[in-house]
Amino acid sequence: QVQLVESGGGLVQAGGSLRLSCAASGRTFSGYPMGWFRQAPGNEREFVAAISWSGHSTNYADSVKGRFIISRDNARNTVSLQMNSLKPEDTAVYYCASQNRYTWPPTAEYEFAYWGQGTQVTVSS
Fold first, then answer.
1. Cα-atom radius of gyration of the chain, to the nearest Å?
2. Which helix (H) or strand (E) holds 22?
3. Which terminal Cβ of the chain has fewer Cβ within 10 Å, N or C?
């Protein structure tokens, strides 16, 4: 019922920047946080960032704190992830996720009900 589509991934050199976007459609649930996760080959899916419905509250994994910025535009039903000072270890498939129940701060996969297909981010050394 809820569809999430990521875009903006690509290949970038270490130290560069990328901006990911996630567009939501279908039956969405107002008032719930959204987030970003990532998964590298051979690794578990890990939490990256989350944002409240109002955008007033954000939460980041320690590995990206100070480098990544999450934002949302509820009028457009989108959430974005600005990634700066990228490192090779940031290479992964990045997934957008949405809740259908409220928890804060959400950092686990089970706290999100809907997921996009992912977009590949590759950072060269």
1. 13
2. strand 18-26
3. C
